[in-house]
Design goal:
Length: 335
């Protein structure tokens, strides 16, 4: 190609991960990146043989119920590719070096969380749900609850990929704030209540990760808020509502918006939760779940209010705020 002038700086195709760029002046982000490296833990340090030993003393329905709960959670903890994709976009858009670094640590965290889900299921009911042979109607419906939950995850994966062509990165990452705040509260509560020590350890370590992930969304919010337009602020308000809708299936009760679930879902889900509780696996009761969400909403709302972002109305919890409608086309899944 003789028409190239090699004496000039090349014009790089965009978006692109090249040229490599580094920045070292975002001290808040660097502090969080260093913290993420310090707080890493190994899922293999959990004594899975001890959990299997405990499982051997439970009846079939109790083991199924615990495997069922971890299977529902895995719909949200199957987030390794979510953040791996965010890493790619972060490099393509040349975000701060430390911010890209934090995204890589979250990707690793989410892989670990996903491993914990899989190991927990394997310890309680190996092969669930696809190699599972239900023995009665309850077991069959529990299996289908999980598969239809994962089907919704598949729907939302496509929506997540498409969101990058619609929204800026700061708005997308800020939208995760609600999910991280709720996860921190839920895992902290479960770590305190579980009678199964090794499960308690897993929840406690996961809560540490989620607290750090929340700090990341807070960092992105505070760094980008001054540049947000009114339209972007309104989108974040919608996404707080979307976060509640998406995560309610595991942390509250499934709302009617967006989710496509069997008509028996809630009845069977409540039965599974009761069975798990009877086995010493702590799942908060409905009132505790509501209180956890209110705590998370107050926490997020206080941050958003400082930057002119309104909290949405959450009538399910008696929370007043901005009345909004979120169409399925606008919905960005929250992990």
């Amino acid at each position: 190609m003789s028409d190239i002038d090699y004496l000039q700086d090349p014009l790089y195709p965009t978006p692109n991960v090249y040229p490599p760029k580094w920045s070292f002046d975002n001290e808040r982000a660097w502090q969080l990146y260093r913290r993420a490296k310090r707080e890493q833990w190994d899922e293999e340090d959990i004594d899975w043989n001890k959990i299997k030993e405990i499982a051997s003393g439970l009846d079939r329905k109790q083991r199924l119920a615990i495997a069922y709960w971890w299977s529902l959670l895995s719909n949200f903890d199957n987030a390794t590719p979510v953040f791996a994709y965010a890493v790619i976009k972060g490099f393509e858009h040349h975000l701060d070096t430390a911010v890209r670094g934090i995204l890589t640590t979250i990707t690793y965290d989410e892989n670990r969380h996903n491993m914990v889900c899989g190991l927990s299921i394997d310890s309680m009911m190996r092969g669930f749900p696809f190699q599972f042979k239900p023995m009665d109607d309850l077991e069959r419906k529990a299996m289908l609850n999980v598969e239809w939950t994962w089907y919704n995850g598949a729907r939302y994966w496509r929506a997540y990929l498409e969101a990058y062509s619609k929204y800026t990165l700061d708005v997308l990452f800020t939208s995760f704030m609600m999910g991280e705040a709720a996860a921190t509260t839920v895992f902290t509560t479960m770590s305190k209540g579980s009678k199964i020590e090794e499960m308690r350890k897993a929840f406690r370590n996961t809560a540490v990760d989620e607290t750090r992930h929340y700090a990341f969304t807070h960092l992105i919010m505070t760094d980008g808020a001054s540049r947000m337009t009114d339209e972007q602020r309104k989108l974040v308000t919608k996404q707080v509502r979307a976060g509640f809708v998406f995560l309610s299936l595991i942390t509250y009760k499934p709302p009617k918006e967006f989710w496509r679930l069997p008509p028996w879902f809630e009845e069977v889900n409540e039965r599974m939760e009761d069975l798990a509780r009877g086995a010493g696996f702590y799942i908060p009761e409905l009132k505790e779940k509501e209180e956890a969400w209110r705590t998370a909403l107050v926490r997020v709302g206080a941050t958003l209010a400082r930057y002119g972002v309104k909290i949405p109305a959450i009538p399910e919890l008696g929370i007043t705020g901005e009345e909004i409608e979120v169409s399925e086309e606008e919905f960005i899944p929250i992990f």
